[in-house]
Amino acid sequence: MTIRDALRSAAERLELHYVSNARLTAELLLAHCLSVEREYLYAHDERVLTAEESQALEDLLYDRINGIPLQYIVGRQEFYGRYFRVTRDVLIPRPETEHLVEAVLELKPSAPRILDVGTGSGCIAVTLALEIPDGRVFASDISESALMVARANASALHAPVSFVCMDIFDAAAGEFEFIVSNPPYVRRGDMSRLQREVREYEPHVALFSPEDELEIYRRLIAGAAGLLNAGGHLMMEVGIGMDEPVLDLFDMRWEKLPTKTDLQGIPRTVVAQLNRG
Ligand SMILES: C[S@@+](CC[C@H](N)C(=O)[O-])C[C@H]1O[C@@H](n2cnc3c(N)ncnc32)[C@H](O)[C@@H]1O
């Protein structure tokens, strides 16, 4: 079978099983099988696949039709213009999280010390380390297996980030100008509303908040007050409708700054500055 025929047939099967973006998915899966970029498929669409290549495509189609997210199959996801390795130990980076990065960059910080809590794939920490070359970036996660992925990403992208395994701020010391976090914030009760592929394949420690969904934000705010310099910023991604309840958790020591919205206008990044002096 030629590349052209394989793509047509794969896209038809994906569509039949209601997989979104069927044609693009077929191209990305075949490109992954052949270890080539998508463009290659068009330049060589008359090339005949070997039996092994056809079988490899068959296996990947099976996985995708069974709900495994495309990013876990191909092992990568783009974030802020760079590719990050992803495994089932880490959340797949989401486009809305890029606003958290932008919120830091907008302030044009000079030689800041930054701590990313719950780093997952390391997408936020690595991006900030590369975008702010005179900064010092630290990143933490409660999951050792997530940290292994984050370390691999930092190394592959040549980003100087120091990683530590800890529960929120349990072992944190030092002073920071920025603390950023995209914590787990989905309510357990909302589990059935999640897409099947998210619910079944992404790590629950990365998705679900503890019983009280504001608890993790309470801990982040309380701990950050002791670790930020006066005038330092805490920036946290929030779930839909959580911006006001999270803002209500800040006491008089903080100045609440305008919440950043995502491209759909949904409030996403809560920002607060610790009072000076
Ligand atoms: C929503 S994911 C965010 C991952 C990554 N920062 C991103 O934006 O794609 C939340 C991360 O927080 C970590 N986490 C969950 N509970 C934690 C805790 N108590 N202390 C530190 N990290 C935690 C999870 O392992 C997961 O990697």
Characterize the structure shown.
The protein has helices at residues 3-16, 22-34, 38-43, 51-65, 70-74, 98-106, 123-131, 144-156, 196-201, 204-207, 215-227, 243-247, and strands at 76-79, 82-85, 113-117, 136-141, 161-165, 176-181, 228-237, 254-261, 267-274. It has 277 residues and is α/β, with parallel strands linked by helices. Strand 1 and strand 2 (82-85) form a beta hairpin. Helix 2 packs across helix 4. The structure holds S-adenosylmethionine. The site of S-adenosylmethionine has 22 residues, from helix 7, strand 4 and helix 10.
Task: Summarize the entry for a quick read.
The protein has 12 helices and 9 strands. By secondary structure, the chain is of the alpha/beta class.
Question: In terms of topology, how is this protein built?
Answer:
Elements: H1 3-16, H2 22-34, H3 38-43, H4 51-65, H5 70-74, E1 76-79, E2 82-85, H6 98-106, E3 113-117, H7 123-131, E4 136-141, H8 144-156, E5 161-165, E6 176-181, H9 196-201, H10 204-207, H11 215-227, E7 228-237, H12 243-247, E8 254-261, E9 267-274
Parallel strand pairs: 3-4, 3-6, 4-5, 6-7
Antiparallel strand pairs: 1-2, 7-9, 8-9
Bound molecules: S-adenosylmethionine.
S-adenosylmethionine binds next to helix 7, strand 4 and helix 10.
